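Here is a typical sample entry:
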Amino acid sequence: MYIITRADDLGGAQAHVRDLATALQQRGEEVIVLAGGKGVFFEQLKVLNVACLPVKNLVHPIRPLKDISALMEIKKLLRDIAPDLVATHSNKAGLLGRLAAKMSGIPAVHTSHGFLFGGGEKQLSGRFYRLMEKIAAAAGEMVIAVSQSEYHLATQLKVIPPNKITVIHNGIAGLGEPGRAKPQREPARIIMVSRFAKPKDHQTLLEALAGLKDLPWSLQLVGDGHGRVQAEMQARQFGLEDKIEFTGTRSDVNDLLAAASIFVLSSRREGFPISILEAMRAGLPVVASRAGGVAEAVADGDTGYLFEPGDSAGLRSHLEELILNPALREELGRAGRQRYLEQFTLEKMAAETLKTYYTVTGQTAAP
């Protein structure tokens, strides 16, 4: 049984659960997905014939009364369905799902897509989230970190003991030839796929491009969120409105990547972003901040370039080089696709994850 907080969103964690549930079901496992509310996530699961059920009281913000109700609701579903294993994703579902599993005597594995206490170790919020994860980790059998950086963060802060956490990098399904980009196309088309939220730091990207107005490029910002209005205003302030397209949320992201030349991600905080893997799969060079596990995906100088979070000058320098050099874009993009094929496929992630599930449940059948 997979449990994730939101069904009304289709971010990286939802895509991860969708692809993993589908892959495991194709391998003969029985899978059911629980999520808060209803929405696009459930619509996709139903198309893929993956069973799903809403948890009406499971909501994203902290709501003590609703959270207690959600815990009882999940516990009842566990009693009725009696799964062999609970696999939780996202922070709220990770806490409530593991507690409910412990109360029901069912082993649980949690996949963290980014610990909330990262970067806030000395803040009150950081201490609160560390305590919550300690409680949840004690209730479950294993935590899967999606990057080595997350593993080191959790173990060095003594939130999770080393014997209860392992690393399995994200992986994504392959695409055929129509999904391949031609990054050498001119003029350069830059693309960033991300929700508009403070940790994604669109401002640094806009500041970087403000110094490159005279070069031949265009930018697509794919996604939506409460920070979009501010980003649109900043684009006008920098005089970039004629070069930038705000596309909103799109269902054809793979097609947009195939038509692009450069992928950029300017985040200040990340786990192990699937959007970067999608860009590498398409054969795009990636310019990204050195946040979280990004450096474990992007080989600096070989498949793209890394810069320090918030360093608009460093980002500007890398973008300028790639905008002016189509042959370099093609070379880095080709190397990035090869790295994806070797290290970040869905098949590799599914096999490693299923092996962990079997180990936790004590089953001996080979995955």
Observations:
- The chain has two domains: 2-173+346-361, 177-343.
